[in-house]
Amino acid sequence: MCLYYKPLPFQTGLDNVEDILVIINGEHRWRTAGVVRAHLSSLPHAPITYILFWRRKKVQKFTNKTVIVTGASMGIGYETALAFANAGANVVLAARSAERLRQIAAANPRFLAVPTDVTRDDDVRRLVETTLATFGRVDILVNNAGFGIRATVENTAFEDAHRLMEVNFFGALRCIQAVLPHMKKQGRGQIVNVGSVLSLLATPRNSIYCASKFALRALSDALRIELRDSGIDVILIMPGYTDTPFFENQVRYGGPVRVGPIKGVHPRTVARAILRACARRKREVVLTLPGKFGAFLKRWFPRFLDWTLSRVP
Questions:
Q1: Which of 78, 104, 166, 253 could form a disulfide linkage to 119, CB 3.0–4.6 angstroms apart?
Q2: Do the beta carbons of residue 74 and residue 99 sit within 8 Å?
């Protein structure tokens, strides 16, 4: 039987292909990469039967992977750590609250608590060293630590703005620089940066927080290109409004925050999105329909979006 095939670009050959959809005389069949490779190695020139195949990314398994999660004491960080542990990974919990981390770690044998302030070089260095000493590797880093400031640019104390950038941006940078040499030595790894829908559009009275998330997005994009051939993925997760203590913990100027009737997603939803993005090696993920709609307006109707946001209390 003679075969004719129409491949999509396989820059790395068939080594990364899990299985292949083959259409033979109108009948759809799944074939392993090895079988298709054998077919392709002996293709004659005359086309009689047509096969069409797509590359499908391997779904990464997390069993016995080592994951570091910063900001793991509550909210998205805690749910992400729990989701990875339930998927079979060993999870290193990093946050400033030592007592809270000990309580969480005591409830799950896959948790290792390492109290960490991401604004301190020594803490981040100890976090990575402890992880390597215990598990021998770092497979995934989830940069989740962060907080917000509710204020206009004019009314924001410079000290608070500086502290926010230290946590939200430079804290992530410290952790990335600490794990990169080890991931490069391993030849693989994943860096997950938890940004925000505000990585795509800025809103009033969240100016400094937005700036930190814009910076994190730019860092993610540039780093992804720098690591293109290293086997290390860089993933940006951009949640919308999430039901966490984030708003209660904001540094505020001028009274409480009016969130309005919007119901945020559960942090467990964000955690599932993070695992799914890691498994499928996504570049970036925007969560929630309002967040996607806001990004759409920013791209195509920026003046209308500015007018709308200017009327938000």
A1: 166
A2: no
Tokens at residue 229, please? 């051939």
Domain ranges of the chain: 3-52, 66-310
* pLDDT-derived band at 109, boundaries 50, 70, 90: very high
Interval 215-232 mean pLDDT? 97
| Residues 299, 231: Cα–Cα separation, whole Å | 32
What length does the chain have?
313
Residue pLDDT, tens place only, 22-52: 444 444 444 454 555 555 555 444 343 444 4
Residue 235 has pLDDT above 60, yes or no: yes
Specify burial of residue 11 (Cβ count, 10 A radius: 0-12, 13-18, 19+). Answer: exposed
Q: What is the assigned CATH class of domain 66-310?
A: alpha beta
* Active-site annotation, residues: 209
What pTM did the predictor assign?
0.78
Q: Under a CB-based contact definition with an 8 Å cutoff, are residues 305 and 297 in contact?
A: yes
